[in-house]
Each structure stands twice: as C-alpha cells, then as structure tokens.
Design brief:
alpha/beta, globular, Ribosomal Protein L13p, Chain: A, four-stranded parallel β-sheet, single chain
C-alpha cells in the first residue's frame, strides 16, 4: 500500500503544450490530467501533485462539427435581464484563451482543490510565453 503524499512532497515540473490544430475537448482532458498529477505514479486524489502547464497558440484550437456557431457561452450579473450569450467564434475573437480555460475547469473536480489546480495553468494566444526561465519540457500530444 502506497502512503498518501502531501503537496510539500511533490516535485513540480513545467510542461509546454502547443495547441495548434488540437481538438478542444481532447486537449482539455490531457491538460486536466497533468494538472491533477494523474499521469504520475504518485497520484494522490486529495492533494495537489500535478505539474505546471504552459499552453501556447490557444487561438488555433479546433472544434469538431458546427460547434463554432452552435456552442454558446452564457454569463450574467444576477440582475434581471442581464443574461448574455456568445457563440464560440465570438469568444475566440474576444478572448482566445477563454475557451480552453473553461474546458479545463469543467474537467477538474468541483471542490476547493480545483481553484488551486487552475492557477497552475498558463494560457497564451501566441507562440511567445514568459516562462522560459522555468525550462518547460515540450510535450507532444497526439491528434
């Protein structure tokens, strides 16, 4: 039986992922698994064991089917009549990182640990990122 590990015993690595041409849902599941640490042999479900993830080219993600025009994102300010809806294409034009961040957040557990995990996700719309000093390891994901 393996003992449960706490967050202080984790060794954090930095992972670089290129989202160019990747499907949103499949990419989000792999990112969520890395953030939680499910790809490590020391996975502990109740502690933060995962790595930092840097995603570049977030504006070049792909949806399958007609999701660019049919998928809706909703927001409201809790005042009457303030419900706003945008399509995925409109959200890509206004904030390219929003689509991928929402997908990853939806695949993390709904508890206090998820707010801690999502802070380790760094999304950038272009190929440039300010995390060169951390020496992120490029991870190639299959299409």
């Amino acid at each position: 039986m393996t003992p449960y590990l706490n967050k202080d015993s984790a060794t954090r690595n930095w992972v670089l992922i290129d989202a160019n041409g990747q499907t949103v849902g499949r990419l989000a599941t792999q990112i969520a698994n890395i953030l939680r640490g499910k790809n490590l042999p020391t996975f502990t479900p109740n502690s933060d064991q995962g790595d930092f993830v840097v995603v570049i080219n977030a504006e070049k993600v792909v949806f399958t089917g007609n999701k660019w025009s049919e998928k809706k994102y909703y927001r409201h300010s809790r005042f009457f009549g303030s419900l706003k809806e945008n399509t995925a294409k409109e959200m890509l034009e206004s904030d390219p990182t929003f689509i991928l961040k929402e997908a990853v957040e939806g695949m993390l557990p709904k508890n206090r640990l998820s707010t801690q995990l999502i802070t380790k996700l760094k999304l950038y719309k272009g190929a440039e990122h300010p995390h060169q000093a951390q020496n992120p390891v490029a991870l190639s994901l299959t299409k």
